[in-house]
């Protein structure tokens, strides 16, 4: 059976010719600039609707968004550093769901990940999962550019053990960098289709997006969605 988090559109994207509609339908259209205004977010929602994006991803203080039509609402917690207490992340996630979020993208505690404290990584993810049970979708941002391959594998396994739905490459704010095809491929092989893989951070061109999809991404986090889609030829 196909995992719940892998949409039919994502399956089509991965299985056959890539179309504008198929790519748009796996995009989290994202605006996480600290200075973004309510008017900016309203424009983001309108653009996501026009482009056929899967969701919008905004800061939790922007919620609730009201009626977004068929576009899902995602937000972040523990963002961007991840250096928050697990109970604070859990409370932030629960508040976001109460405010209308369908999906939560949480940042792991990198100090735990880089010092191989994987049981503690799993425990903090599990705390957020308990605060936002299904059907809320939980994505775990691992900051793959700041981790070794062995650490990427270990954090992905911790996320799966804790009940996450996705692993995600990056916040886009870490100085080590954003998504890479290497990291996406490693994450995809580790979770083996049991979890989704979201590539996010520094994906600015059509070629970047297609490379991530080819590597195994089943969701894309994009801020420049329109320009990425414009490069596709149906």
From TrEMBL:
Q: Which PANTHER family match?
A: DEOXYRIBOSE-PHOSPHATE ALDOLASE
Its recorded name reads Deoxyribose-phosphate aldolase
Which sites are catalytic? 105, 168, 198
> What is this enzyme's EC?
4.1.2.4
The record's section on NCBIfam families has: deoC
Keyword terms, alphabetized: Cytoplasm, Lyase, Schiff base
Record's function text: Catalyzes a reversible aldol reaction between acetaldehyde and D-glyceraldehyde 3-phosphate to generate 2-deoxy-D-ribose 5-phosphate.
Spell out the molecular function terms from Gene Ontology: deoxyribose-phosphate aldolase activity
Instruction: Report the family membership.
Output: Belongs to the DeoC/FbaB aldolase family. DeoC type 1 subfamily.
Which compartment or compartments is the protein found in? Cytoplasm
User: Whose protein is this, by species?
Assistant: Georgenia subflava
What are the BP-aspect GO terms? 2-deoxyribose 1-phosphate catabolic process; carbohydrate catabolic process; deoxyribonucleotide catabolic process
Q: Is the keyword Ligase in the record?
A: no
Top enzyme class of this protein? lyase
* Gene name of this polypeptide: deoC
Q: What pathway or pathways are given for this protein in its record?
A: Carbohydrate degradation; 2-deoxy-D-ribose 1-phosphate degradation; D-glyceraldehyde 3-phosphate and acetaldehyde from 2-deoxy-alpha-D-ribose 1-phosphate: step 2/2
**GO CC annotations on file:** cytoplasm
The reaction(s) annotated as catalysed by this protein in its Swiss-Prot or TrEMBL entry are:
2-deoxy-D-ribose 5-phosphate = D-glyceraldehyde 3-phosphate + acetaldehyde
């Amino acid at each position: 059976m196909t995992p719940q988090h892998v949409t039919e559109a994502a399956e089509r994207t991965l299985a056959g010719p890539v179309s504008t509609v198929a790519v748009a339908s796996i995009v989290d259209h994202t605006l996480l600039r600290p200075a973004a205004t309510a008017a900016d977010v309203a424009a983001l929602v309108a653009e996501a609707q026009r482009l056929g994006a899967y969701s919008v991803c905004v800061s939790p203080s922007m919620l609730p968004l009201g009626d977004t039509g068929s576009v899902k609402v995602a937000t972040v917690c523990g963002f961007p550093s991840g250096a928050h207490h697990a109970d604070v992340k859990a409370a932030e996630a629960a508040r976001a769901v109460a405010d209308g979020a369908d999906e939560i993208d949480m940042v792991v505690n990198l100090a735990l990940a880089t010092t191989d404290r994987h049981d503690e990584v799993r425990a903090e993810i599990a705390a957020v999962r308990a605060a936002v049970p299904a059907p809320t979708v939980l994505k775990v941002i691992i900051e793959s550019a700041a981790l070794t391959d062995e650490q990427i594998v270990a954090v992905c396994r911790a996320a799966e053990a804790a009940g996450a739905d996705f692993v995600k490459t990056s916040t886009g704010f870490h100085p080590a960098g954003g998504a890479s095809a290497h990291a996406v491929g490693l994450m995809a092989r580790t979770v083996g289709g049991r979890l989704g893989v979201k590539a996010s951070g520094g994906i600015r061109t059509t070629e970047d997006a297609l490379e991530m999809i080819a590597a195994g991404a089943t969701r894309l986090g994009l801020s420049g969605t329109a320009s990425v889609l414009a490069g596709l030829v149906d």
